[in-house]
């Protein structure tokens, strides 16, 4: 049981490049979400999904897209990276939105130059 | 919109002593959860303790306890008998308990805790 995993752990992009971050969970969780962590701002919700095939916008969705084609995977895409997207990205999952326990992945540090 | 404020960017404590981290929040809802998460240098987010708003009794988990003041919208974390392994960034977080929250956590800015030997 690996829990929540994120790929990659580190990445450096040039402005305008694209990439996809992968979040995978093996706990059969319905709810998955992406947060970004910036100094002095805590974690902020980017997008979330309440089940396979569904996605919705969170607090800071601009510049990101997501997909949940399989229940166990939640992908976060950056189509044209900007320096403002330099951040640490966390994925979280839980059995349902109503469940208090959310399991976080180890994070991905992304630098956009 | 809900907000969570941690007014202490940094705190320090001597090993074996007690420290209290502060958190205030703003919400118009009456049913919600409050959490404290620990983030060590490894970056992993670790749930330390949670409090259901409808419970008057303060939550405790071993050396960790909270002081939940619902009317004042205050939620502080007390760490007793501090250990070197407690050194980390601590985040206070809020989640509305209703179905429309979709599990969204609202985090404070974080407090860096240093433990001196």
Quick structural summary:
The complex is a heterodimer of chains A (113) and B (117). Chain A is mostly beta strands. In chain A, 0% of the residues lie in helices and 50% in strands.
Topology, element by element:
The complex is a heterodimer of chains A (113) and B (117).
Chain A: E1 4-7, E2 10-13, E3 19-25, E4 31-38, E5 42-49, E6 56-57, E7 65-67, E8 73-78, E9 87-94, E10 103-104, E11 108-112
Chain B: E1 3-5, E2 10-14, E3 19-21, E4 24-26, E5 32-39, E6 46-52, E7 60-61, E8 64-69, E9 74-79, E10 88-96, E11 106-107, E12 111-116
Parallel strand pairs in B: 2-12
Antiparallel strand pairs in B: 1-4, 3-9, 5-6, 5-10, 7-8, 8-9, 10-11, 10-12
Describe the structure.
The complex is a heterodimer of chains A (113) and B (117). With 113 residues, chain A is mostly beta strands. Chain A is built from no helices and 11 strands. In chain A, the strands form 2 sheets. In chain A, strands 2, 4, 5, 6, 9, 10 and 11 form a 7-stranded mixed beta sheet that branches. Chain A has a 4-stranded antiparallel beta sheet with strand order 1-3-8-7, with no helix packed on it. In chain A, a hairpin with a 6-residue loop joins strand 5 (42-49) and strand 6. The mean pLDDT of chain A is 93. The mean pLDDT of chain B is 94. In chain B, strands 2, 5, 6, 10, 11 and 12 form a 6-stranded mixed beta sheet that branches. A 4-stranded antiparallel beta sheet of chain B has the order 3-9-8-7, with no helix packed on it. Chain B has a two-stranded antiparallel ribbon with strand order 1-4. The radius of gyration of chain B is 14 Å and the shape is globular. Chain B is mainly β and 117 residues long. Chain B is built from no helices and 12 strands. In chain B, a hairpin with a 2-residue loop joins strand 7 (60-61) and strand 8. Chain B has strands spanning 3-5, 10-14, 19-21, 24-26, 32-39, 46-52, 60-61, 64-69, 74-79, 88-96, 106-107, 111-116. The A-B interface holds A 31, 33, 35, 40-45, 48, 50, 56, 58-59, 88, 90, 92, 94, 96-102, 104, 106-107, 109 and B 4, 9, 33, 35, 42-45, 47, 50, 91, 93, 95, 97, 99, 101-105, 107-110.
